[in-house]
Write a structure and sequence with these properties.
This protein is of the alpha/beta class. Helix content is 32%, strand content 25%. The longest helix has 19 residues.
Length: 310
């Protein structure tokens, strides 16, 4: 079972102008939240760790996790409010976000809130702005370091400069995590923000030199560049009539972890047995899953029956 660690929030879509302002469509989300839901929809057992508000929005987040069969025993209840992210879309459906979450529940997790993890938790995934904000950032890194010796560690930076505008803060945290991560998945856009002017090959080589076993760089419609222990390969993208790309990266991440589990490689001991053929199959599976999400509005991740067999 994977434990997904990070923020839970609402994506707020302005739907239409009204005489009094806007009609808003509030969608449950947050990158790590989406990954947890995506894993569950793909038929895998998964738990979620975050600070969750006791306000009505937080209670709805908890009930949504339960409805999606994501285990909620690791949630930490807080009196702080719930984070909101207002989403704007470009003409091609690419989202940009404005976050409202100062001192929100998912930013005030402390070391005292960190869980004791049983053996059934074989891997942990970390991602997005929880890596760099408030007390939560240090707490999550401490959790990752405490578990890295025996459990698989996965990282997706999912950089959001609208939350933390200093790319150097993101860079330092990502580089610190890369010392212990087994898997790093990153978009080409995030690479440009983290390491301006650097090439994909250079970034991959640097992470491998620090011990990362599997690196995947997603490039939207152009597919994926991946490297397993220094052996690189590409998997092409899939054509799809895109509504928007909200949640596509999270879908890819969920499908990546699902694929590893389905092949019995989602453990610290199993990853060394992963082959290039395994990786190509998993990357193709993840691309197919992300394509489904792109065909729908918002982060509506696919269920197992909607994605071709691994």
């Amino acid at each position: 079972m994977f434990l997904i660690c990070g923020e839970a929030l609402y994506d707020i879509f302005p739907v239409a102008e009204t005489a009094a302002g806007f009609t808003l469509d509030a969608r449950i989300g947050g990158s790590p939240f989406n990954v947890a839901v995506g894993l569950s929809r793909l038929g895998r057992r998964v738990a979620f760790f975050t600070g969750l508000s006791s306000d009505p929005l937080g209670r709805r987040l908890e009930s949504a996790l339960a409805e999606e069969k994501v285990e909620t025993g690791y949630l930490v209840k807080k009196q702080n409010p719930t984070t909101l992210a207002v989403v704007g879309l470009t003409a091609s459906g690419v989202p940009h976000y404005t976050f409202y979450g100062h001192d929100a529940a998912d930013r005030v997790v402390t070391a005292a809130d960190l869980p004791d993890l049983p053996a059934e938790v074989t891997g942990l995934h970390f991602g997005s702005f929880s890596l760099v904000v408030g007390q939560t950032a240090d707490a999550l890194e401490a959790l990752a370091h405490s578990q890295a010796a025996g459990k698989l560690i996965s990282l997706d930076p999912n950089v959001r400069l609208s939350v933390e505008p200093d790319a150097a803060v993101w860079r330092r945290r990502v580089e610190s995590f890369s010392q212990i991560a087994d898997i790093v998945k990153v978009s080409d856009e995030d690479l440009d923000l983290l390491f301006p002017g650097d090439s994909i090959d250079s970034a991959i080589a640097r992470w491998h030199s620090r011990g990362v076993k599997l690196v995947l760089v997603t490039r939207g419609a152009e597919g994926v560049v991946a490297s397993l222990r220094g052996e690189a390969f590409e998997v092409p993208g899939r054509k799809v009539e895109t509504v928007d790309t909200v949640g596509a990266g999270d879908t890819f991440q969920a499908a990546l972890l699902c694929g590893l589990e389905e092949l019995g490689k989602a453990t610290k001991a199993g990853l060394p047995e992963l082959t290039l053929d395994d990786c190509r199959r998993i990357a193709g599976f993840a691309i197919s899953a992300a394509a489904v999400t792109c065909s729908r509005r918002g982060a509506d991740l696919p269920r197992r029956g909607e994605v071709p067999a691994l």
